Every structure is written in structure tokens, then in C-alpha cells.
Amino acid sequence: MSFFLSFISFLCNALAIIIFVRAILSWFPVSPHNPIMVSLYRITEPILAPLRRIIPRIGMIDITPAIVIIILLLIPQLLARFI
């Protein structure tokens, strides 16, 4: 069971970092056709898109990445508690 928790923790941390990088890169004029941006969108959009329908924007600011990062960091802790 320790391997499972370690794997889930690694996966959640990696996704949180990727979402953070995508959020930071969104502040800069990077072409959406850039291969790095295409890869980031393909990895993160299935996670972010469903929550964007639920979580409203605050003015021009999309807080969905921050909420997803918090959720991803809480998942390993919750799994460790229940397993």
C-alpha cells in the first residue's frame, strides 16, 4: 500500500507543478501553437475544464488552477488518512 500512496502523491505533485507552470506561462505572450504549450494544454485541460464550468471567474482572473492545485495537494493526505 505504501507504493500506491507514493505513486499517487508523485502523480498529484507532478500535475500540480504542470498546472502551476501553465498558469505562469499564461501571463507571457507565448504562442498557443508552441509544442510546450500544446503539451501543457493536453495534460491540464481535462482537469481544469470541468471545474471551470463550476467555478466562476473573478473579473478577468481564473482561479481554477489555484483551486485544482490545492485539491491535488490534499488528495494524498486524504488517501493516507482513509487507507
Written overview of the protein:
This protein is mostly helical and 83 residues long. The chain contains 3 helices and no strands. The chain has helices at 2-25, 35-52, 64-82. It starts with a helix and ends with a helix.
What's the quick description here?
This protein has helices at residues 2-25, 35-52, 64-82. The chain has one domain (2-82). The protein contains three helices and no strands.
Number of strand elements: 0
Largest sheet: none
**Shape estimate:** globular
Report the radius of gyration as a whole number of Å.
Answer: 14 Å
Strand percent estimate: under 5%
Core attributes:
single chain; 83 residues; mainly alpha; 3 helices; 73% helix
